[in-house]
Predict the structure.
Amino acid sequence: MILATAPYPGLRPYREDEQGKFFGRNTDQAILVDKILGNRLTLLFAASGVGKSSLLQAAVIPQLKAASGENLTVVCNTDWVSEPLARLRACVLTTLQIEQTHEPLTPDNDSLVAALELGSLLVRRAPLVLILDQFEEFFRYQAHGNSFRTFIDELTAVINDLSLPVSVVISMREDFAMELNAFKPALPNLLFENYYRLEKLTRQAARRAIIDPVHQLGCDYEPALLECLLQDLQDRKREQLSLPHVISTDSVDSVDPPYLQIVCAYLWRLKPASDSTLRLNSYEQAGRVDGILRYFLDDALNHLSTANKQLASKAFDYLAAQRGMKMAYPVDVLARILRVKPHKLDKVLAKLAKRDMNILRDQTRHGVVWYELYHDMFSDS
């Protein structure tokens, strides 16, 4: 278990109160803040696991909100499972009520525009920044729902209303980017005019993300460990990119943030309390990157009973169809292949899809639950 004082959060995103632990993204932060301040609509794209939410929560939002920074009001919503319009509107009003210490706010009507019109009268400075994070979830859960079109209409009304001092940020996985074409009829020119693609970490950025968090706690990496770890992380990326089926724009020298987080969090737990240095010997004894990733997966599966662990292992044989590649399956199809009842398999896989596990990702498509590995790294672990 990672303690609250630990320098690395593991696979979960950084939180807003963890900005003191978040390093390696200064350039991305500066560019994104400039885009937000200079445009009514900003799109933030990245591959799964690169760190969009962490960048927003631990870097961009604190700078936008800080009195010593931009001193703006920021509303951030990540919940798209049910009633997205009502939830977003409530998120706007709740944020304004908390920040401005007003009595409950009552807009003229139930529209999102009305909530933001009221909000624009109360904010410290313009614009009010409205961040829609993990927005691919909106398409996953709402694409076939009754509220899908209404939400799109109301959000485009906000973006197109130039009298509203609002800057909208949509952050989502890049493999869902084309879903945004649903907005194009109302935003024919503006939609893809201003976007930013968050890349994986460079070696130098990875170095900062590794050592700066432990420096905050008076600790350090043995130089030999730091160089070995960086090389191993880059070698693993090069190995992935060399596979014949992999098509990627990633640099061969880039580092996957999920690998870095898992390995560094594990090394931190190995460090004796009496020692302020993380050492190469501990890393090598743990099996280096590959050994630590295998341990991470085994540890997650150890939370299951023996029978359920065996069932999960069989499911992984299909979810990781070939080395370096993940596959998605509907739970009923996978259950039929494994010759088990769908509800039994779903119960096991759902545990591994929880946010504190992040081994699997579940998606609902046309009312059917699909599962896939959370990250490609688990397909060859």
Observations:
- The first strand starts at residue 41 and ends at 46.
- The beta strands are 41-46, 74-77, 128-132, 166-173, 195-197, 220-221, 277-278, 329-330, 360-365, 368-373.
